[in-house]
Sequence to fold (291 residues):
Amino acid sequence: MDLISVRLCTSQHDANQHALVLTAVGIPSHTAVEDDGIVLYVATADAAEAIRQLAAYDEEEARRARAPSRTRFLVPKPEGPLAFIAVMLFFFAAVEASAWNLEWLARGASQAALIMKGEWWRTVTALFLHVDASHLLGNLAMGVVVGLLVAQLLGSGVAWLAILVSGIVGNALNAAIQLPTHTSIGASTAVFGGIGLLAGFTQVSSSAPWHRGARRWAPAGAGLALLVLMGTAGERTDIWAHVTGFVTGGLMGLVFGRFGEGLVARPGVQAASGLAIAAIIGAAWFAALVT
Fold:
């Protein structure tokens, strides 16, 4: 078989990397140490395609080197977790005390049939209701950790808004696929939405060391592992709510990872996101309590 050189490399590492690029597209190659360096050889019939693939690889590497890192860690503010804890404790206390003689669970639970009939607010209000103290404490612990991690990527305001939206959309999707009698409550849909946000964002981060090969699926795999290990255990676990929250958050994370850097850096965006959170929660509970 006639061989032709397609690349002269200065180190064995570079030669192995370029050989891997060719192997990935089905072009056999081998290296040989010569006076000028390490030469990469392919069959003459494959030379043109090999040169094209290596040029495309060089261009991609140059583009990646010029591009600024998307993973710019921000310092999360304590207001987000503190507000999350305070709001959750308020609604738990309100349910336990039947505050203002209101049936909080009946008015706010995510009931599939009622949501599909137009009671949209239940996709929001259900996130703030819990069965008992252990249910609440579990979601508080996970929620604070996940919220702080997402806030490092998106900033506190945008992070908590994104987590809330992932929970809302997750509850809506869950209602659409469940039986009409299905009822659920709890913040876990939003918590797993936050895990999805982390997985989706880091999946497309340009500074991540797992861009090629099997390792590129590490963030998604880690998120799915958490979903399986923590989102499917327990007799009362609403698995599909966790799945829909995770998927929704994952898709949002992919969008933020690709296009969100400029958005979160704009002045006022974080504050506006905080106001949006208050408006969504306030509007939903107002609708729930007056309807």
Notes: Residues 207-211 have pLDDT under 50 and may be disordered. DSSP finds 13 helices and five strands in the chain. Residues 3-66 form a domain with the Alpha-Beta Plaits fold (CATH 3.30.70.1530).
